[in-house]
Every structure is written in C-alpha cells, then in structure tokens.
C-alpha cells in the first residue's frame, strides 16, 4: 500500500522506463478522487457521475452559499477574528468557482497534451537525458503532494483551533446541526464543515497544480531538446543525411512543445487571472486579522497557514514561467552554437528556420492583459498593503472591535 501511494516520490532507476504521464500521476489521482476523470462507459460511469455532482455541489454551490447564509442568519455569532477567517474563505470561494468550472470543463486539454508530449519520451536516450526526465517526474509528483499537505494543513489547523476554542471553524450554515447545542454537536458540525471546505480546497488544488505539472513537463523536454541540439553533428560516424534527419526531429519536437503550450494557454489565461485578482484581498484580510485583532498562537498559525497557501497558489507557477522563458532562450543559444557552419546547404537552411522559431520564447499572459511572472505576482500581492493601510488609517479595526464588544452591530 505504501509503495502504491509513494512510488512516484522515489526517483526511478535510469534503466527503468518512465513516461510523461507518470509526471501527472498524483495530479490525476486527486482528480479521480474528486470525480473529474470518469470512466468512458458502463454503469460505473453513471455511479461515478453522482459522486462528481456531489463534490461539485459541495465545493462550488453549498460552500459559498452556506457562508453567505451564515452572515444573514447568524452574523451576531462572529467575533472579528472569526469573521475575517470566514471572509477569507468566501473571497477565495469566488476564485475557486471560476477556476473549478474552467478547469473541469477543459480537462480534455490535459489529455490531449499527454497524448502529444508522450511522443517525446522516446527521445531520452542518453543517461544525462534520462536523468533529467526521471528527476522531473519525481519533482512534479512531489510538488502536488506538497500542495496537498499545505492546503489541507490550513483546513486542519482551522478545524482544531476553532473546536478547542468552542466554536465551529467557519460557522457554515447547517440547518440540521447547530454547533451551539452541545459538545457532540460542535464536533459533528465542525467535521462536516471540514469535509465541505476540504472539497473546495481539493478543487482549488487541481486548478492550481495542473499548471505546475505541465509547465514542468515543458521545461524538462526543452532541456532534453537543448542537450540534443548541442550534440548535433558531433558523431563522425553519421552521414549528412542522418544529421539532417536528427535536426528535423528536433524541429518537430520543438513544434510539439509549442503546440502543447498553445493548448494550455486559454485555460491558464483565465485561471491565473482569477487568482491574481483575489490574491491581494486574501493576503490583506489575513494580515489584518493578525495585526489588528486579538489572537491566540493557534489562530495566528491558522492565518499564517492561509497566507502560505495563498502564496503557494500563484508564486511557484509564476517562477516556473520565468524559467520557461529562459529555457526557450537556451534552445536558441544551443542551436546557434551547434556545429552547423560546415554543414551542407539544406542543413543550414533548416537551422535558420529553426533558429527563427526558437527565438520566440514560450510566454503566457493572465487574461491576455499582463505577463505571468514573479513581478506581476508581487504587483498584485502589494494590494494587501493597500488594504492594511486603509484599515490602519481609518482605525477600522479598533472601531469594529469596540462596536462588536458594545453590541452595536446587528445581524
């Protein structure tokens, strides 16, 4: 059982065959659990479809609706810290609804990319190339597992810090169980809330990790392609015809990577744009909760875990996008410095064509407005400081807390 769950976290021996699909193994396992990869036919497909509807209803319907109904029905139960914690989830739910609907409806793109990019696996022939490939497979699965532990860790911390304080973690509206009726009701309501929020969290996990998994695949195959280009016309035993065929194969593989990037581009544009629009608000609310309202060490840890989870949603991918641009430059540099000067005319013409295409880096944009980069991520995250400054200048934290203490705010 342990080997089944953690097999991909150990780098496979170089002589063992691995595929590009192995890099997305954990990603597809989470998608399978959430009901996103249905069987093709049979009764099992209909049963699985019911599970898909259940997870979708809990994550994108009941979770945001239940939180909003709580504000209408039981707003007087919230302390300022609890309200901000709940509001963080509400804001994040907005982005989750958008990202989940887009990602789920575009799952076919991932399957199409797996089909296309799997043709490049057979190009890994040298030990150095296989080492690059095997390391990427392990790293991509490890990243998904780290995301999973970070996201669910936030839910877990909120669950226990709230229950030990005698409150439900998010006070999600539940018409059947009132957490104020007793200890057992508190635990039952809290565990139900944890399950619902975890469903939304896992949906967001899928929407956030697909980009990292497939961009890692692109980077890996670009690195292998760069190594192959650098070794063109280095084998004296090959004829000019065979050297030309190797160059044509490199051109075709580069075209395949470009084609895969075009397939993933529309979904990236929407999901990352939605994330960029909300990251500053989420970070600002978490920081306000820590800085302006009374907290225990456990509530501070819960807010810090939320900040880490929010930063994890966008920063690693933005960093990978910058590395992808650098990898594209390395391909063109390797081609320019390859041994093509003494080649025949046909080979040189193909090199010029390839060089022109390779000099156009693979770059993604969010909402077709601004480039996806670390600088863009920092720029939108700075909005958190704007929110903190407004709260501090207007003394909203102290006013809200004093009014809540005096009972002046009505539900």
Description:
- The structure is a single chain.
- By secondary structure, the protein is mainly alpha-helical.
- It is 75% helix and 1% strand.
- It has helices spanning 2-6, 20-23, 25-33, 43-74, 80-105, 107-117, 127-164, 183-230, 240-292, 297-336, 345-358, 374-381, 383-393, 396-406; strands at 365-366, 370-371.
- The chain has a two-stranded antiparallel sheet.
- Strand 1 and strand 2 (370-371) form a beta hairpin.
- Helix 9 (240-292) packs parallel to helix 13 (383-393).
- The radius of gyration is 25 Å and the shape is elongated.
- The mean pLDDT is 85.
List keywords for this structure.
411 residues; 2 strands; mainly alpha
Overview in brief:
The chain has 411 residues and is an all-alpha fold. It contains 14 helices and 2 strands, in the order αααααααααααββααα.
Task: Please describe the topology of this protein.
Blueprint: H1 2-6, H2 20-23, H3 25-33, H4 43-74, H5 80-105, H6 107-117, H7 127-164, H8 183-230, H9 240-292, H10 297-336, H11 345-358, E1 365-366, E2 370-371, H12 374-381, H13 383-393, H14 396-406
Antiparallel strand pairs: 1-2
Helix pairs in contact: 4-5, 4-8, 5-8, 5-9, 6-9, 7-8, 7-10, 8-9, 8-10, 9-10, 9-11, 9-13, 10-11
């Amino acid at each position: 059982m342990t080997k089944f769950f953690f097999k991909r976290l150990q780098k496979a021996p170089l002589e063992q065959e691995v595929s590009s699909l192995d890099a997305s193994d954990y990603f597809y396992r989470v998608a399978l659990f959430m009901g996103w990869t249905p069987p093709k036919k049979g009764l099992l497909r209909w049963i699985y479809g019911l599970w898909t509807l259940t997870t979708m209803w809990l994550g994108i319907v009941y979770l945001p609706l239940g939180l909003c109904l709580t504000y209408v029905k039981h707003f007087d139960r919230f302390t300022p810290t609890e309200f901000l914690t709940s509001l963080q989830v509400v804001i994040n739910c907005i982005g989750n609804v958008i990202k989940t609907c887009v990602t789920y409806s575009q799952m076919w793109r991932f399957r199409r990319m797996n089909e296309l990019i799997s043709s490049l696996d057979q190009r890994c022939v040298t030990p150095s190339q296989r080492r690059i490939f095997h390391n990427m497979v392990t790293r991509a699965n490890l990243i998904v597992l780290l995301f999973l532990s970070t996201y669910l860790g936030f839910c877990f911390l909120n669950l226990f810090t709230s229950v030990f304080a005698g409150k439900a973690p998010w006070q999600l509206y539940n018409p059947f169980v009132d957490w104020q009726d007793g200890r057992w009701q508190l635990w039952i309501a809290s565990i139900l809330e944890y399950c619902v929020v975890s469903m939304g969290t896992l949906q967001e996990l899928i929407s956030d990790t697909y980009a990292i998994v497939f961009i890692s695949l692109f980077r890996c195959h670009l690195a292998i392609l760069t190594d192959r280009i650098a070794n063109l016309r280095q084998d004296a035993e090959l004829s000019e015809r065979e050297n030309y065929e190797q160059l044509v194969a490199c051109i075709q593989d580069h075209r395949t990577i470009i084609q895969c990037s075009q397939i993933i581009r529309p979904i990236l544009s929407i999901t990352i744009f939605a994330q960029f629009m909300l990251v500053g608000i989420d970070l600002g609310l978490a920081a306000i909760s820590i800085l302006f309202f009374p907290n225990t060490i456990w509530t501070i840890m819960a807010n810090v875990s939320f900040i880490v989870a929010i930063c994890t949603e966008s920063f690693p991918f933005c960093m990978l996008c910058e590395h992808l641009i650098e990898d594209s430059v390395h391909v063109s540099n390797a081609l320019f410095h390859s041994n093509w000067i003494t080649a025949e005319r046909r080979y040189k013409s193909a090199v010029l064509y390839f060089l022109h295409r390779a000099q156009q880096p693979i770059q993604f944009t969010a909402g077709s407005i601004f480039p996806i980069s670390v600088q863009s991520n920092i720029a939108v995250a700075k909005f958190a400081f704007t929110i903190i400054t407004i709260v501090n200048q207007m003394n909203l934290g102290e006013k809200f807390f004093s009014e809540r203490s005096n009972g002046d705010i009505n539900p």
